[in-house]
Write a structure and sequence with these properties.
The chain is an alpha/beta fold. Helices cover 35% and strands 18% of the residues. The protein binds ligand MGD (2 copies) and molybdenum atom (MO). Belongs to the prokaryotic molybdopterin-containing oxidoreductase family.
């Protein structure tokens, strides 16, 4: 195949065989500084990123070390910062020039690239424009509107970026108002882990910290695209590889960051072009085939154990006896699984899985890292639990260098759950909240994100408040959600940048622009700081460094406090103004509510490397129903349960993120690591599949969801790109493909949309080029 192919005037595809990191990432960073019109002073702000005295990156949630590098950020973190500190502005004058119906024709990139919002705005139907409004008027009307609704018809969404302080207040606001309708981005992301892990090991989060990377003997890596989604982790992986730690990867796509890496911050490596190979084994599993692959590895382990001259050299019997529950059922199920079934479902050979098991059996301390490739499936909970079983077989939870490591998405998504953003009332200490703040936590379960969408479609939800996020793009089922969204009575977007969710608006609609985390937040008692929790359960302080984008912006804590005063005044004992004057008081309140995790919060948040929350499973204390670590048997190897087995022309669509995006924020149209430039409207297919359907690389196709429920779901104009992906699997980008995702096609228990296996048919378009 030619190294570089032009498939249309704006689409170029090439084989990208440079390492992740390296000069490519330096060039890309320089371009994003220039595009956002960020002068060199912007790079001074970057030096404070992820530093103990600086701000926590607004991009991913990866851990921040106690002894940071000079540049403790990656290409994508830097992009996120420059995107936020851009010099471009969306002022009231901008809205005057552009009616809402015109803006609605702009694409996601154009909307956010227009710059930072500067002023609170209210939609005016007569002129089809957003008009400036005073903050006081905005809060008063939103409060009035909310008070007129029944509490359960309002939804308080938050994207995982808002700080611990803001999130805590937001939870209290919703509960004082009378609802647990507090869905967050986690509902589309790692909710699968939050359901799977408590049943298996009694904690809702991972058990690994950064220290474990320095002590581990082997890493298993499932369905996480480290080079794009959490690039700073590449440093830990590189260090591990240099200690000869094998990395065994399962991913349908050969992702660059999992193949090789050049540390852009190591001059020697940059000059010599030396790259560190990352994965020692790379298994291109079929999408949804991980449960089968894990069963295969487990089966091979049992066989190795049986064949070993000294019993117990492979299976950790002492651990299982003392800590395990359900071994007999598990080992029986593993033995009952046929190799042919495993090979068929995983798309991997017995030999390949035995090779993985062979390495695993020889290594002492092993970590299991994973991302959306496991969580966004119909049976994702079972897959995560099967992976935990694999860890438990060799006692790999609760000792140094070993454990379970879900890689979280948004920079504080894990922390939001920790301080009460959840639709499940049982997850918050109701008695404390009553005693401390005079709020009765409603006992009715609230709506998840998927349930909120259902409510929007059926009309039972009347108001959506979004603290960050862009639900109109990030949720499934656009064809039904978007028109229903327009019928909402009230939509409020607390945002830094303009996005589609502000344009597809309700009858009464507000844009409330806020400070970003990189910005200096001045309140009555001086400059304020906030805190976030990273993927490893570590809390960090964060102090903004950049001048606010506009003098009219309010901080998120202030906006939430004002909304609370306008909506639930007299229903709590909280002195909202005092909290806003000094965020340390909010942290004291968090510490009183969750003392085990947050005692002495204000002092400890500045500890280099942050402070850890206690995670019982790390100490081998199992807060499960059995009091043990549970081997939970998956119900079946079949994960694509919405695809009839006889449907030969149906393929499984994986929706991907590119290297040029952060969720619905599209920085540019390139996906450098996958060698795709200039367009996101592509579909990656195996050569044999292209041939089978009589297509050619470069033609345009329509994808249609292959389910029969009366809803027509199609996305057109996608150009076929030949790609190294298993046959029967195709890939395209999120959010462009979200119209294909049925709302009910979600993880069975966790309700996480199954965005990594959407059954679709590929249809050639008549006017193909
Ligand atoms: N630059 C950047 N960083 C981000 C984000 C972003 O959009 N851009 N988003 C943030 C957020 S909110 C999140 S949740 C994380 C997401 O980060 P990831 O967890 O990396 O999620 P995805 O990028 O969606 O892709 C997951 C990977 O799973 C693979 N995969 C797909 N199906 C399967 C499968 O069935 N099995 C296996 N084993 N692998 C599979 C895909 O090929 C892909 O490499 O990143 C965060 N960081
Ligand atoms: N098909 C498919 N769908 C998916 C996924 C997938 O892999 N495939 N991934 C899912 C996942 S993992 C996630 S997490 C969701 C994400 O979904 P969301 O949480 O809905 O979306 P984001 O794109 O993260 O939100 C971006 C918006 O947040 C606003 N924003 C940015 N910074 C700030 C800030 O500091 N404060 C405030 N208040 N606002 C800010 C900006 O205006 C920006 O437009 O999407 C999910 N949807
Ligand atoms: Mo996410």
């Amino acid at each position: 195949m030619a190294k570089s192919r032009r498939l249309s005037p704006n689409l170029k595809v090439e084989r990208y065989d440079a390492p992740a990191g390296g000069w490519g990432s330096v060039r890309s960073l320089a371009r994003s500084l220039a595009r956002s019109h960020v002068p060199f002073s912007g790079s001074r702000v970057l030096l404070k990123q992820n530093k103990p005295d600086g701000f926590a990156c607004v991009s991913c949630a990866w851990a921040k070390p106690a002894d940071p590098r000079v540049f403790e950020f990656c290409e994508n973190g830097a992009k996120a910062t420059t995107w936020e500190i851009t010099q471009k502005r969306v002022t009231p004058g901008f809205f005057d020039h552009h009616p809402v119906s015109e803006l609605d024709s702009w694409d996601d990139h154009q909307l956010e690239a227009a710059g930072r919002l500067t002023h609170p705005m209210r939609f005016d139907a007569a002129s089809d424009r957003y008009l400036p409004v005073s903050w006081n008027e905005a809060f008063a009307e939103i409060g009035r509107e909310l008070r007129e609704l029944t509490p359960d018809s309002a939804v308080f969404y938050t994207s995982g970026r808002a700080s611990l302080e803001t999130s805590f207040m937001y939870g209290l606001l919703a509960r004082a108002y009378g609802t647990n309708n507090l869905p967050d981005s986690s509902n589309m992301c790692h909710e699968t882990s939050s359901v799977a892990l408590p049943e298996s090991i009694g904690v809702p989060v991972g058990t690994c910290t950064l220290d474990d990377f320095a002590k581990t003997d082997c890493l298993f890596f499932f369905g996480q695209n480290v080079g794009t989604s959490s690039p700073r982790m590449l440093h830990q992986l590189q260090e591990a590889v240099k200690r000869d730690v094998p990395i065994i990867t399962f991913n349908p796509l050969r992702e660059r960051g999992l193949i090789e890496f050049t540390n852009p911050q190591a001059p020697g490596e940059m000059l010599s072009g030396a790259a560190t190979p990352i994965s020692s084994q790379y298994h291109q599993v079929r999408t949804g085939g991980d449960t089968a692959a894990m069963m295969g590895i487990a089966k091979a382990l049992l066989q190795l154990e049986e064949a070993s001259p000294v019993g117990g050299s492979v299976i950790d019997w002492d651990f299982i006896k003392e800590h395990g529950h359900g071994w007999d059922d598990w080992s029986t199920a593993v033995k009952a699984c046929s190799w042919s079934g495993i090979e068929d479902r995983s798309g991997l050979t017995r030999g390949a899985l035995e090779a993985a098991a062979h390495v695993y059996a020889q290594k002492n301390s092993v970590m299991f890292i994973y991302g959306m490739g496991l969580t966004q499936h119909r049976k994702g909970v079972e897959t995560v639990q099967t992976m935990v079983n694999l860890a438990l077989m060799r006692g790999n939870v609760g000792r140094p260098g070993a454990g379970i490591c879900p890689v979280r998405g948004h920079s504080n998504v894990q922390g939001q759950r920790t301080v009460g953003i959840t639709e499940k009332p049982g997850m918050v200490p109701a008695d404390k909240i009553k005693a401390l703040f005079g709020i009765d936590v409603p006992q009715k379960k609230g709506l998840t994100t998927v349930e909120a969408c259902k409510g929007i479609i059926d009309g039972s939800v009347r108001a959506v408040i979004q603290l960050g996020g862009n639900l109109v793009r990030s949720v499934p089922e656009h064809r039904l959600v978007v028109p229903a969204w327009r019928k909402l009575r009230l939509t409020v977007q607390i945002l830094t940048k303009l996005n589609r969710s502000a344009l597809v608006h309700g009858e009464v609609s507000y844009i409330l622009p806020c400070l970003g985390r990189t910005e200096i937040d001045l309140q009555e008692t001086g400059q304020q700081a906030v805190a976030v929790e990273d993927s490893t359960g570590c809390m960090h302080g964060s102090r903004g460094q950049a001048r606010p984008a506009s003098p009219d912006l309010l901080s998120e804590p202030r906006i939430v406090a004002e909304l609370a005063k306008a909506t639930v005044s007299g229903r709590t004992t909280i002195s909202w103004d005092a909290w806003v004057a000094d965020y340390a008081r909010i942290r004291d309140a968090i510490a009183s509510t969750y003392p085990d995790i947050f005692h002495d919060f204000n002092e400890r948040m500045w500890k280099p490397g942050g402070f850890h929350r206690p995670i019982a499973a790390r100490q081998r204390s199992w807060r499960t129903k059995t009091g043990k670590a549970n081997f939970i048997v998956p119900s079946s190897l079949v994960t694509d349960i919405d695809t009839p087995p006889e449907a030969r022309d149906v393929v499984q669509l994986i929706t991907l993120r590119s290297n040029g995006q952060f969720n619905t924020t599209i920085y540019n149209y390139d996906d450098r690591f996958r060698g795709i430039y200039g367009s996101r409207l592509v579909v990656l297919m195996h050569r044999n599949d292209i041939e089978r359907w009589g297509l050619k690389e470069g033609v345009t196709v329509t994808l249609a969801t292959a389910v029969d429920d009366g809803v027509d779901r199609q996305v057109s104009g996608l150009r076929v790109v030949a790609y190294d992906i298993p046959e029967g699997c195709i890939a395209s980008y999120f959010p462009e493909c979200n119209p294909l995702l049925p709302l009910w096609h979600h993880e069975e228990k966790a309700k996480t949309p199954a965005a990594k296996s959407i059954p679709v048919r590929v249809k050639a378009e008549a006017a193909a080029v």
